[in-house]
Amino acid sequence: MSYETLAADGGRPGEPTAILEDYDRACATFDWDETRRLLGRLPAGGLNIAHAALDRWVVNGTGDRVAMRFISRQWQRRNYSYAELSRLSSRFANVLQDLGVEPGDRVFTLAGRIPELYVSLFGALKFGAVYSPLFSAFGPEPVSARLEIGGGRVLVTTRSLYRRKVLPVRDRLPALEHVLLTDASGAELPPGTRSFAELMDAAGDAWRIPPTDPEALALLHFTSGTTGKPKGAMHAHEAVVAHYATGRYALDLHPGDVYWCTADPGWVTGISYGAISPLANGVTMIIDEEEFDAARWYRILDEERVNVWYTAPTAIRMLMKQGKELAAAHHYDRLRHLASVGEPLNPEGVLWGKEVFGRPFHDTWWQTETGAIMIANFRGAEVRPGSMGRPVPGIEASIVRVSRDDDGNPVAAEPVTEPGTHGELALQPGWPSMFRGYLGNEARYRRCFAGGWYLSGDMAKRDADGWFWFVGRADDVIKSAGHLISPFEVESVLLEHPAVAEAGVIGLPDPVAGEVVKAFVELKPGHAGSDELALQLVGFARKRLGAALAPRSIAFSSRLPRTRSGKIMRRLLKARELGLPEGDTSTLEQNG
Q1: Cα distances (angstroms) measured from residue 135 to each of 75, 112, 229, 258, 560
Q2: From the CB of residue 220, how many other CB atoms can be counted at a distance below 10 Å?
Q3: Share of the chain above pLDDT 70, in %
């Protein structure tokens, strides 16, 4: 199904022009070294994420600008200036020193969107510790696994989360010496914990960031595979160079903007683009303590006069499900750029943004391993609904054909030049936020590279004009009667049907075709699953995709399995359908 290309955004009167207006020129002239120079150097030497995000604004005299506006569940607002966040993070660095923590030790957080999380993040980086976030909805087992793999020595969390998620497994975590609770003190403290507030009150405001090697380990982000333990992707302080550049080019962040990233800080997006990138670009970031609520979200966009909004396709579809009337009650005259992250954005979501907000959503593509946005639809360029976009300046991407040995290890990768050819999306290594390894798993890290390329594991195609289009994960692509079928493409068509709220598509073994397509569908309120509706959906898909690509069968589900970040877990649908082991389900939405 093709959609009409949307023209480049010319901007409304009074709006700043797009930072990236001439894509070809930007790519031809881009220089990572120049970007590093814009971030400045530490007074003591080197590069530190916390200095680039906070302290340099204080040094240059703009520390009184609002860095973070925290909105509590009860709608109480609290502004934190760059100077205040810098001071509080320095205090936390002193707390770590007073506790006897050493540079390189791991500091974890297990919390929702609370100010103490951001103070801990930047304080740990100032100190020279390695910061790692944990998703607050994890259960005890995934929390324990990540703390154990990461060797967590310090954990900042809340009293409730400690009792439910950490206490049941703490005896398995001998390395965990210090648990700091953000909402308890004195007699309220459970045994073996300390008060975050009391330690902060006793600490000094002054902290001089020591010389920091840009290659020093800074961030540890965990990602789950289909089997085995979670993998800890390691990122260096150098990553902030990419966070800064992609915030400018892909998100069009201008100093002084009001910016809202809805991602949970337990995930890489909530740290890279929910904290580091916006602050490195000098904006005011909105931090909403509450979880998704459509009416609340529209109110925030309106009342906070948000300029740039970065959210997830799942959230966009949930807003679409609520209808347009709720959105129509508010004004979005300051909203300049809408972007999405986390999974491919269906064309319908792109166009819905244009209809409701007057601006289309701009999809972006990246991974935990890439550390920052690699491919994007830019504000100053045309949008092709359903496309991932084009590589960010400084990034070289290609579609490659991968050769593997008998054990499945990649041994060669040959770029494919023919437009429209399916292959694996690959990147030339060397960008600043590229992960430096999987903690304790060098062999697995090496399998991510071949022939001078980083292999993303995502299948894609590139059109004649250089736009990339997502096809599916390498292990998701369906091969049926000689056809390579993208689950995403089938799901996008099913989502166009007025009865369908969500869809997950898998391939099932077939003795003739190799695989046949089966779709699992979640319906909108007011619709009930039936044989008649299943036949209608199959016909609907056949009309748009053709019989070769359309589902052979439809199954209805009241709730499709999702990760915490909202991605439908196709591999889990397939495992359950075939009676196979489910693998790692620690990121499953229902857990915890």
Answers
A1: 23, 8, 16, 25, 20
A2: 23
A3: 96
CB 190 within 8 A of CB 168: no
- Please, what is the Cα angle at 110 between 108 and 113, to 5 degrees? 115
Residue with tokens 């709730």: 559
Query: Which are the contacts of 139, defined by CB distance < 8 A and separation ≥ 6?
Result: 165, 586, 591, 592
CB distance 346 to 495 below 8 Å: yes
CA atoms within 13 A on the CB side of 531: 0
Torsion angle defined by CA atoms of residues 148, 153, 157 and 159, in that order, rounded to the nearest 10 degrees: 90
Pairing of strands 284-288, 258-261: parallel
398 in Cβ contact with 418 (< 8 Å) = no
Which residues lie closer than 8 Å to 230 by C-beta, 6 or more apart? 142, 145, 146, 149, 222, 223, 224, 584, 586
Beta strands in 330-379 (DSSP E): 337-340, 361-365, 375-376
Chain segment 399-437, per-residue pLDDT in tens: 999 998 877 789 999 999 999 999 999 999 999 999 999
Q: For residue 589, name the pLDDT band (cuts at 50, 70, 90).
A: low
pLDDT at 226: 42
From the number of C-beta atoms within 10 Å of its C-beta (0-12, 13-18, 19+), residue 255 rates as exposed
65 with 53: CB under 8 angstroms?
Answer: no
347-357 helix and 313-322 helix, angle to the nearest 10 degrees: 60
* Sign of the CA dihedral with 521 first, then 522, 524, and 529 last: positive
CA distance 534 to 552: 10
If residue 106 lies in a helix (H) or strand (E), which one and from where to where?
A: strand 106-110
Q: d(Cα 192, Cα 144) in Å, to the nearest integer? A: 17
**What are the φ and ψ backbone dihedral angles of 396, each rounded to 5 degrees?**
-110, 115
Contact 41, 50 (CB under 8 A): no
* The token pair that represents 341 in the structure block: 């992250």
Give the number of other CB atoms < 10 A from CB of residue 485.
Answer: 25
Among 320, 207, 220, 307, smallest CA distance to 271 is for 220
| pLDDT tens by residue, 239-294 | 999 999 999 999 999 999 999 999 999 999 999 999 999 999 999 999 999 999 99
From CA 504, how far away is CA 400, in angstroms rounded?
Answer: 26
Residue 437 CB coordination number (10 Å): 17
The answer to whether the beta carbons of residues 52 and 129 sit under 8 Å apart is no
Q: Are 189 and 408 in contact (CB under 8 A)?
A: no
161, 164, 171, 274, 587 from 143: Cα distances, Å = 11, 11, 13, 22, 11
Taking the alpha carbons of 247, 250, 256, 259 in that order, is the dihedral positive or negative?
negative
Question: Which residues, 6 or more positions from 459, have their beta carbon under 8 angstroms from its beta carbon?
Answer: 422, 423, 424, 425, 470, 471, 472, 473, 474, 476, 477, 484, 486
Judged by DSSP in three states, 260 sits in strand
Distance CA 158, CA 115 (A): 12
Q: How far is the C-alpha of 573 from the C-alpha of 208, rounded, in Å?
A: 51
Q: Which of 220, 219, 223, 221 is nearest to 237 (CA)?
A: 219
